[in-house]
Amino acid sequence: MDESSKILYVGLDVHKDSIAVAYAPEGRGTEVMSLGPIGTRQCDIDKLIRKLQSKVATLVFAYEAGPCGYGLHRYLTAKGLTCHVVAPSLIPRKAGDRVKTDRRDAITLARLLRSGDLSSIYVPGVEDEALRDVSRGRDAALQDLKRSKRRLKSFLLRQDIRYTGRANWNAAHLRWLSEVVCPTPPQQIVFQEYVRAVTEQQERLQRMEHELHEAVKGWRLYPVVEAIQALRGVELTGAVILLTELGDITRFDSPRQLMSYLGLTPSEYSSGPRRQQGGITKAGNSHARRALVEGAWAYRYPAKVSRHLQLRLENLPAEVQAISWKAQVRLCRRYRQLTARGKHVNQVVVAIAREMAAFAWAIARLVPRPG
């Protein structure tokens, strides 16, 4: 290696049982070298570090975000090394490149890291990731509950057993379910198993929500969680989802940057004098985007401070309350204007969610940043 090289850019293609390694010396004219695969144990990583530091003192690592998580990033940064976790979808690819191997992926990462063409993602701290896991566990329980309910309703429909009440899953519906008799004993057993599955998933969801509400109270971003609940349509669960997925949203320089990260900005294909915009990009974090879109439905009603919202506003600063009311007035009017112009209601709700992100960013800036 050229003695004038001062930085070594190391690409890691990380898998469950192996890591393919390649490095690129500083200087674009130098060749990218492959070291082959190594193990995933800490002793294997330490051996790699010693080997590379014998060549040059400064090492910069990069690997793709994936199912192996952030353990490698934390281990390297704890040793004082620079490590980037990059977004796989934003790695430049050649259109005609049809060959993919671990070795080629590691070489590509090293080369692009040297040229500065990789986009790093936000890496949460251990506490932040723990709360995010609870939040996603609660979301998984909710999805499983919905699937269990659909299975039960589909089974009853196949038997031509129909509920004639006004709403499902209320007290009257549950009483009706307890009196259902299927045509045959085997079908009755299946029905009871479906009912039991719904009950178990409801209990699981309650446990996860209780754990989430308790864990968030000691979180460093809990003051921000409380503050952004000033927005209509953003209750505790939605606020926790937003912040556990995004972290401190004041790290974004502007609301537009936050909107783009959430994938709430329109896609565009323009060429010459022709400008064409399409649906939203749906880039970035889908969990946070969905939480905002669900909350945006609250603005289809006229601006009003409900009893629940008033309770959330009571202990918040006057500046936050002012932003809350400003958001209500603007977004409720915006909803009416867009629907009057003939926009589809889903498009309108996404537009409202995009502006909600900006108001949440403005509120978060008024809360003292955690140390």
Task: Explain how this protein is built.
This protein is of the alpha/beta class and 371 residues long. 52% of the residues lie in helices and 12% in strands. The chain has 13 helices and seven strands. It has helices at residues 42-53, 71-78, 102-115, 126-158, 171-178, 185-215, 222-228, 236-246, 255-261, 286-296, 307-313, 318-340, 345-366, and strands at 7-14, 19-25, 33-38, 58-64, 82-86, 266-271, 274-280. α9 crosses α13 (345-366). The longest helix is centred in the middle third of the chain and has 33 residues, at 126-158. The relative contact order is 0.08.
User: What structural class results from the helix and strand content?
Assistant: alpha/beta
Mean pLDDT: 93
How many strand elements?
7
SS summary, helix count: 13
Share in helix: 40-55%
Instruction: Identify low-pLDDT runs.
Output: none
Beta fraction:
5-15%
N- to C-terminal separation?
43 Å
Q: For the CA atoms, what is the radius of gyration? A: 26 Å
Side by side, the strands of the main sheet go 3-2-1-4-5
The sequence of SSEs as H and E is: EEEHEHEHHHHHHHEEHHHH
Coarse shape: globular
Query: Sheet bearing the most strands, described?
Result: 5 strands, mixed
